[in-house]
Amino acid sequence: RGTALQPLFKMSYSCSKVGDPHPGQPYKGGNFCAFLPDNKEGLKTAKLLKKAFERGLTFRIKSCNGEERVTWGFIPHKTSWDGGKARNGYPDALYLHEVSTVL
């Protein structure tokens, strides 16, 4: 499969803020892992994803079965090395172009 970058995000329990579904309510965090190819375009995308994360654009809080929890936001991430586009994995020849456009 080759070498890959693996950004890992760990979101803890915390309280939601204004603009979230239920401001002031606690939410459940989680571990989120995404994959990028280890090449020039993948490294460029990783820098853009880091900026998006720092600006609070990577995740959102969603109400699910009466519980607030962190989920992926609207920026597409590859969460698997296989399964293709339908399973948020590779191969997906257009992914890096598409995510760069979103970012």
Automatic annotation (TrEMBL):
Top-level EC class as recorded in UniProt: transferase
Subcellular location(s) of the protein: Cytoplasm
Entry EC no(s): 2.3.2.27
Catalytic activity: S-ubiquitinyl-[E2 ubiquitin-conjugating enzyme]-L-cysteine + [acceptor protein]-L-lysine = [E2 ubiquitin-conjugating enzyme]-L-cysteine + N(6)-ubiquitinyl-[acceptor protein]-L-lysine
Entry keyword Zinc: yes
Alphabetical list of Gene3D superfamilies matching this protein: 3.30.390.130
UniProt entry keywords in alphabetical sequence: Cytoplasm, Ligase, Metal-binding, Transferase, Zinc, Zinc-finger
Record's protein name: E3 ubiquitin-protein ligase
